[in-house]
Design brief:
This protein is an alpha/beta fold. The chain has helices spanning 30-39, 50-57, 75-79, 81-84, 92-103, 151-158, 170-175, 180-190; strands at residues 2-6, 22-26, 44-46, 63-66, 107-113, 124-126, 129-133. It has a single domain (2-144, 180-190), classed as Rossmann fold. A hairpin with a 2-residue loop joins strand 6 (124-126) and strand 7.
Length: 199
């Protein structure tokens, strides 16, 4: 199976998928892409704009996961509007959902934070995040884990040791990292029956 992992970061969502499939990861930041390569040496890693890459290559894959940048949608960013000034929410999130919904023949999922506004397209809610997909994502929501933990605890929660890497914002990288268990549950749900209950 050919898998496209967009906005790959260091690969939290992909961590427990195994190596039975052909995975292409797209990450814009070269330093983060190099960390991904260290953790997943069998994956093909492309350093480019994931939004553009999706439009040009979506037909080449069987399963697509996208985790577009979340700051403009987050409640935290909205709280600090008075400090930083208002900004437009980045509508690339919805462009990608609509592209996949309208044109992609395989299984797909788009992940993002719970937004400060009512979502424009109804998502599934799982583990304190929004997921849009063409398969059912359901299950108990779990306690929010991670955002305000120490780097050491975040590394344990997400399962990545970043000790050897310098000149990177480890806190931000780990906070942006999808929990591997959630990534595996959703990956498995994509290829099961229509009604799936995640653990």
């Amino acid at each position: 199976m050919k898998i496209l992992n967009l906005y790959a970061g260091i690969g939290g969502n992909r961590k427990l998928w195994g190596d039975d499939h052909e995975v292409t990861a797209v990450e814009y930041n070269p330093e983060i892409a190099n960390i991904y390569k260290d953790f997943f040496p069998k994956d093909k890693v492309i350093v480019t704009d994931a939004h553009k890459y999706l439009l040009e290559h979506f037909k080449e894959y069987d399963f697509i996961w996208a985790s577009p940048p979340c700051p403009t949608h987050s409640k935290i960013r909205k709280v600090f509007t008075n400090q930083n000034g208002p900004i437009y929410p980045d509508m690339k999130l919805y462009e990608e959902i609509l592209l996949l919904k309208g044109y992609f023949k395989g299984k797909w999922v788009v992940e993002n934070v719970i937004s400060w506004y009512d979502p424009l397209i109804k998502p599934f809610l799982y583990r304190q995040h929004y997921y849009w997909a063409n398969f059912v994502i359901s299950g108990k929501d779990t306690e929010f884990r991670g955002h305000f933990e120490s780097i050491e605890n975040l590394e344990k929660i997400k399962g990545f040791n970043l000790d050897k890497y310098t000149n990177i914002d480890k806190n931000k990288i780990l906070r942006n990292c999808v929990e591997p268990e959630a990534g595996l549950s959703i990956f498995n749900a994509a290829f099961k029956s229509k009604q799936v209950t995640l653990l």
